[in-house]
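pipeline: protein-struct stage 2 | run 1193 | Trichome birefringence-like N-terminal domain-containing protein
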Amino acid sequence: MKFQNIELPIGNNSKTQMMSKVTSLAILIALIFIITTLSCSLFSYPSLLKMNKYKQPVFAYDDDSKEPESLPSTYVNKCDIFSGEWVPNPEAPYYTNKTCWAIHEHQNCIKYGRPDSDFMKWRWKPNECELPFFNPLQFLEIVKGKSMAFVGDSIGRNHMQSMICLLSRVEWPIDVSYTNDFDFKRWNYSSYNFTMASFWAPYLIKSKQVDSNGGLFNLYLDEIDEKWITQIEEFDYVIINGGHWFFRPMVFYEKQKIIGCQYCSLENVTHLPMHYGYRKAFNTAFSSIISLKNFKGITFLRTFAPSHFEHGLWDRGGNCVRTKPFRSNETKLEGTNLELYRVQLEEFKIVEEKAIKKGLKFMLLDTTQAMLLRPDGHPSTYGHWPHANVSLYNDCVHWCLPGPIDTWSDFLLEMLKIESLRSTNRETSFA
């Protein structure tokens, strides 16, 4: 900025002193402006005040780079990223309950006194390659101008809240929900025009709670839940999940007639196994997605994440008090968990073939094996204060944040990178 000499009827010394004062005043004003701007930024984004206290993973590129430096190793090596072991990662976690407001109270384990912290300090190591840490910058560049929906139960919401915390190192989202209903939330990352949403649908299909205590549900196996299916047509990515609600007593309907039940004592009603209703629910959900006229997005099936109740069922004193992961040779998927997982894989294979014929893509986000090995990652009793007047069971279903569920975003980003690469190659081949 250039200041003009001010001609006054005074001597040369006075003129010099006046110019010095004007220059000093200009510098002071500039400093005040800079300090004020920085202060506003910090108070507008409080995470900036805290983020340097926690180690950040080394990213493949910085803010100015738009592409990864090289092809994903998992793509080059044709590696199965879902088969592996948990190995120590002393640098984790990359956020805390004090730096992320998105953590649900019931998964805020450190806040409510969990005494150990090692459960946060592991990473997933595939058997034949390395799985890169979640890179929020790279993720937001890939999904720029797009949208992603999480459809299913509260584990899906658990996943979305984990992702919000991981992305908070770059940007906080703005609530753009169409309703005040906590079960149907939408968040927008304005700098990237990326929208993320969660739609509550624990059964995926139409259901009705029969009693006020949530002890019995009617499931309409051939009717989709309209609350979510009518909203996903606009989304680029849809992540489907479901499982834990199917352990409840249920009455099954098809064509508006009772065909059987599960864990019920109704007279003259056929008892059907859990996997019957589970298979029908996914079949109806997948069929409804590929029947949408304007849906062009990618659908991910996020596979069942087993619970880890020991010494009793969830409603009979079962708990999860382990503090370390299993090794892959220390446990195995079996019983009902194995049955549900097989149903998901079988229904996925069926819809994948149908989707290809319609020009749609289904992808398998297979978290089952990794999460089977993490009995240490659940809230247990640390989802509330020890003597709080709450009617909650020990939680061995959801996942502490930070915690092992953060790895799901590692998986998802790697899949998105590979899909982005394949899409680019397809476009190049047709050019």
